[in-house]
Amino acid sequence: MSMCTSSFKIMYSLGIIFILLPVMVLAEKKPNIIFILADDLGWNDVGFHGSGQIKTPQIDALAYTGLMLHRYYVTPICTPSRSALMTGKYPIHTGMQHTVLKAAEPRGLPLNEKLLPQYLKELGYSTHIVGKWHLGHYKKEYTPLYRGFSSHLGFWSGHQDYFDHTAVEEKQWGLDMRRGLDTAWELHGQYSTQVFTKEAVGIIKNHTTSQPLFLYIAHTAVHSANPYMPLQAPLASIYSNLGCDTNQARCLYAAMASELDQSVGDVVAALGNKDMLKDSIIVFSTDNGGPANGFNENYASNWPLRGVKNTLYEGGVRGAGILWSPLLARTGRVAKQFMHISDWLPTLLTAAGGNTSNLNIDGVNLWNALKDDTDSPRKSVLHNIDDIYRNAAITMGDWKLLMGATYNGTYDGHYGPDGRDSNYNEEDIIRGATGNAVKKIGMNLTVEVIKNLRNEATLLKCPDRNHTVPECWSLKRPCLVNIAEDYCEQNDLSDLYPEIVKKLKEELEKYRATALPPGNLPLDKRADPNLWNHTWTHFGDYIAPLNKNV
User: Fold this and answer.
1) What CATH number belongs to 30-380+406-440+449-457?
2) Is 165 a residue of the active site?
3) pTM recorded for the entire structure
4) What is the pLDDT of residue 416?
């Protein structure tokens, strides 16, 4: 008799094997990871941050049974945030720090960068993306199927018409909707948010649960569409949001947000129906601050935060974010851990059982800090350095230094609406699709719990201005703010604390010394959709266009 057989018989006789085997199975199981990225959603465009103007009961139910990320930072605009999410690096370290990637640019996120889905695929994950890519498509090697994803239904550029799925850039117009590398003409007329939701739900329904799932749902909502009709929603959503505000453009925006919220509920319900919810991690995040007050032909609200998308004030970089999972030791709380969008890569890899100790990235592993509610290992955030715009900002602890401004400071003010006087119905959250799904796995919500958490997560109106110090205007001179006390960034304390200004400037210079030049390139005439059957395509792979007469 072999030693192995003998040991097995002893264990069997003692009943030990019945205890050890389930433990071994549990130890090997990796969580499903569902990452939902909203586009241009403002701080004040979710109910759990205090406004009742836009109804988000599905998102709110996730927030109240998960973690509301109170000190969570993104980058100020689309492409840089997506590059940070995928690489775990600040955009200055990938050359993606200046503005967005244009559809006609012959570049993309550098191919030498290893991306989040590639890491997860090595850990045995089935990886899928639904929705917006915006990290390069001029050659097929830059598109999702070559960057670690097994499937993609969505678009490659930065925005699209929600119904006809065309993108207008630099007066060029073409279809931008793909199923893998194939043009998805058949989706014409179907609303983008609903298309992406249907695809995401289908992936969940057809998933083999013995394998962990990574599903990245990158919505176009609530980004504005093409200039001829920037705000678009189905009629049913428009009618249900009529009268949300005196500004009807804001109500159209609310209708778009309602569709986004419904999508979250459908995805969570699908996970519940598949019995995958109890083994899942769900992240909900915006990619940048909201475009408020007509900026980018949109009407988000970052109230009471200052600034808009593509500014370095809090309204541009402080993100609405949620981490939800039964794997968290303490759920249903406002998480005060300091966090940046680049942290998701090491954080999620750790949750998936990966080793992040040798990664050369800027992201910090926060899994244990968030799971166990301990102090964040992140102590500072570089918001950006853009030497073309001539602006930069960094936060270290409670201190934030801002230098320079975009748009000559035009959008550096405070923009509403506040929306706190609007009706907020806790019962809608409890009875919604998300509320019901999480209840089935033991996460119950009550009206009292919702009210208490919402009060804790809400930033109230701006504190009184301190008129003994200069007003903060970073366009005029470097501005130092104590962000813990002055989250509205009103008071410039640089004259009172010159030594802190000096320290933060030195940190910025250290980062500047490591920065790659911005990778932006002139637009390529070969990208013109008229040359390619009126579609945006991977034009760099072809010698000659389809339409030689244009």
Assistant:
1) 3.40.720.10
2) no
3) 0.94
4) 84
